[in-house]
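Hello forum,

I keep getting stuck at the same step: I have a sequence, I want structure tokens, and every attempt I make locally crashes halfway through. Rather than fight my setup again tonight, could one of you with a working pipeline run this one for me? It's a single chain of 157 residues.
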Amino acid sequence: MAVVDILNDQDEMKAHCYTFVMWPRKWREYSDVCPLDWQLCRLIDQERPKIPDEPGIYTLLIQPRIANHSMCSYLMYVGQTNSLRRRFGNYLNREKHETGRPKVFRLLNKYPDHTWFCFSPVPEAYLDSVESTLLIAYMPPANDRLPAEVSRIRRAF
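Reply #2:
Ran it on my machine without issues. Output:
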């Protein structure tokens, strides 16, 4: 019986494994394209009114909130949008049910009680460059498309 439990536990654990790249040189190379004023809220409908209807950068974080440790987060995804409020709503509704982006779909459905939306308004003219620099610095596991300078290296693993 103990062998079966170990096998089941091992399979369950593997279903929650993600590859994170922690590359200090890329962190040091990060340059502020424009100032970011990050705000954090749970990905739940009651938070929607707090989200501005303006362009910005956002990240999806998984926060286990174990032992009231609010600073423990896993940055899973970086994105940009022309409307932070609309994108927030997409994640509450459409993205939870569609499979257009399987990795994001998986996150939203596997960790519904632990998903947080972290955002910063950014002028539309800076969205591409801010997103690109953050993708290079963080290399989040749920982003499929990364800038060419790191994508080639990451694929080599």
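The first strand starts at residue 39 and ends at 42. If your local run keeps crashing, start a new thread with the error log.
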